[in-house]
């Protein structure tokens, strides 16, 4: 019988194969990571201190900003560390922690996008009932449910990983730990892991994408019924940014995770991973909030030296 032992650390392949590019990309990703932390933190503070922004939509944007910070922080600091090291390693415990935080963040964000699309649906299609359907108590329950489902999903998949044996090789062909790369290194059967992961991805990605599509179908139908062109433009402007980010985010997540392990493509997935772990969290504060006049007013309270153009 083969003696299966657990690896104490993994070696990461890294993001780039050319060492002379490491310093350049370290500076670039450090700037992007700083933008993620600063941008999303400013949005949270601005919404908290400015009463006109105490609405359901901005309550969920606050949660979204927090999720983006967690998602990026679970990957980028270790990536920056490895960019400046010749031997790129991560401990088994660090890999599991990264898996848990990243997976729970991604699941929570998918659910948040669905809840935000429902908020826009109620606001545009049932404006007279908006206060009742999106009361403070309901918003808190929705947010708590979103965080709970995202965390439980990640916890279950992590428990299934912990039951596996890893006896070598220990090379992770990525710049962070994710389920497809970890399962590929296991000496044990990963059939149950792949089934559970696929079911979770179908529910979180495809299920929520379907709900979001249904919400926006009703929104578009309602907008087309508006007689005034200004009314149509105003209604569409309240959800166009959200729809743009939903399309970008879902396309990257579905491409990465809704596929069998055998069809896993390293080079393509690295590029896509940069999008949903770094680029999208950088753009979210701008796309969702900074175009809003109320947010600009709130930003003046946070940053008194800013001026509105």
From TrEMBL:
Every G-protein coupled receptors family 1 profile domain range: 39-288
Molecular functions per Gene Ontology: G protein-coupled receptor activity; olfactory receptor activity
Keyword Zinc: no
Keyword Cell inner membrane in annotation: no
Main location: membrane
Compartments reported by the entry: Cell membrane
Membrane spanning stretches: 24-49, 56-76, 96-118, 138-162, 202-224, 236-258, 273-290
Entry similarity comment: Belongs to the G-protein coupled receptor 1 family.
Listed name of the protein: Olfactory receptor
Gene: LOC101954061
């Amino acid at each position: 019988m083969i003696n299966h032992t657990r690896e104490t650390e993994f070696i990461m392949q890294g993001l780039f194969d050319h060492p002379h590019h490491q310093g350049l990309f370290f500076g670039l990703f450090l700037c992007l990571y700083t933008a993620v932390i600063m941008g999303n933190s400013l949005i949270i503070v601005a919404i908290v201190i400015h009463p006109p922004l105490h609405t359901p939509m901005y309550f969920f944007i606050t949660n979204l900003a927090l999720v983006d910070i967690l998602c990026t922080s679970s990957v980028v600091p270790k990536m920056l560390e490895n960019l400046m090291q010749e031997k790129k390693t991560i401990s088994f415990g660090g890999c599991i922690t990264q898996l848990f935080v990243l997976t729970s963040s991604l699941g929570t964000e998918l659910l948040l996008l669905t809840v935000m699309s429902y908020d826009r649906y109620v606001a545009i299609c049932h404006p007279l009932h908006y206060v009742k359907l999106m009361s403070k108590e309901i918003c808190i329950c929705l947010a708590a449910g979103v965080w709970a489902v995202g965390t439980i999903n990640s916890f279950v998949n992590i428990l299934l990983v912990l039951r596996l044996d890893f006896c070598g090789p220990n090379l992770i062909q990525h710049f962070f730990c994710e389920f497809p790369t970890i399962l590929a290194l296991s000496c044990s059967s990963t059939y149950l892991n792949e089934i559970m992961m696929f079911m979770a991805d179908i529910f979180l990605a495809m299920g929520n994408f379907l709900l979001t599509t249904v919400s926006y179908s009703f929104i578009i139908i309602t907008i087309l019924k508006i007689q005034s062109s200004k009314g149509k433009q105003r209604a569409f402007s309240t959800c166009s940014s959200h729809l743009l980010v939903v399309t970008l985010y879902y396309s990257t997540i579905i491409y990465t995770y809704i596929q069998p392990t055998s069809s896993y493509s390293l080079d393509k997935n690295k590029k896509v991973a940069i999008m949903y772990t770094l680029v999208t969290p950088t753009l979210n504060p701008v796309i969702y909030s900074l175009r809003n006049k109320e947010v600009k007013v709130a930003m003046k309270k946070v940053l008194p030296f800013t001026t509105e153009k």
